[in-house]
Amino acid sequence: MPDDDGLLASLRYLFSDIIGEQDDTPPLLPDALPAALAPAVSDAIHLLIDYQGVSYAKLYVDRLKRFVGRRGVDQAMLADIARLMAQRMAYQDPIRLAQQKLVELEEANRRFQPRSADDVKKFRVDEMVGALPAVVADPLLGVLEKLGWVRKNVSIRFSANSPFSVRRLKMEAGLKRWRLFSVRYASERIWVERWLHMIDRSLTKQPKAATAVIETATMIQGFGDPYRQGIADWHAIIDGLVKPTFDGALALSDLTAAIADARAAVMPDPRQVALKRKIAEIRARVPVAS
């Protein structure tokens, strides 16, 4: 489970949006942050302010502070945590793609350039509904599940080439104020906290494997079916190899190699046949604690 401090920080910033107690002052860089990382972390803070708001950027800084100055975390490792956490916190959803399209439009207008071509993206139905507040999304997802539609792919056009399409983009981007109440945000918050928790545990239990654990975040990219596949594969590796090792239930002396072997077996297969077989093979090679 995620550590209590990280979970409380996440909930604190969510509730600050609910009750309207927001400080619009951008967060300061963490104390003792290496000077060489200041530009990248500053960029991440500004990215997350644009993505969601100041409180969300403060959550990022709070999470990062857990590793700044920590024993066993060198500059390269801290840079990877900072970069990958920012990428996951700015996850791709229809709201984000609308935001990015509007930015492209502003840049084209400022430079007197032609507007960009339309972008057509494929989302799963549950992914689109999951961007809505949970109070609306949960009952709707229940109905869609009964109809067998939640995993269907739907193409969405992101266009800025007409007044109507620009208005639609602005409406979609305006949903950002509800993002922190959405089903998707809840699942992303849990994922980020679990990832950070696994890094914490690796630094304590198997420091040499910490870099490999950090880099598992790269398994999760984009949206639609590839995103869902990445999430499922990540959990399979964490639940099958990483967590049992940290719990003392699996005596894996080289967790880095085990993670690499498992990741090499990842295929675009919802059944995860090759991955599950590889995880079973790795587990079979080592003694299981009683």
Could you describe the 3D structure shown?
- The chain has a two-stranded antiparallel ribbon.
- Helix content is 62%, strand content 4%.
- The protein folds into 3 domains: 1-90, no CATH class; 94-179, no CATH class; 206-290.
- It starts with a helix and ends in a 6-residue tail after the last helix.
- With 290 residues, it is mainly alpha-helical.
- The chain has helices at residues 4-19, 38-51, 54-65, 75-89, 94-110, 125-129, 134-147, 163-174, 183-205, 210-215, 224-247, 255-264, 273-284, and strands spanning 119-124, 153-158.
- The mean pLDDT is 90.
- The longest helix has 24 residues, at 224-247.
- It has 13 helices and 2 strands.
Keywords:
two-stranded antiparallel sheet; 3 domains; mainly alpha; 290 residues; single chain; globular
- Beta-strand content bin: under 5%
How many helices does DSSP assign? 13
Mean pLDDT: 90
- Give the radius of gyration: 21 Å
Q: Would you kindly provide a brief summary of this structure?
A:
The protein has helices at 4-19, 38-51, 54-65, 75-89, 94-110, 125-129, 134-147, 163-174, 183-205, 210-215, 224-247, 255-264, 273-284; strands at 119-124, 153-158. The protein is mainly alpha-helical and 290 residues long. It folds into 3 domains: 1-90, no CATH class; 94-179, no CATH class; 206-290.
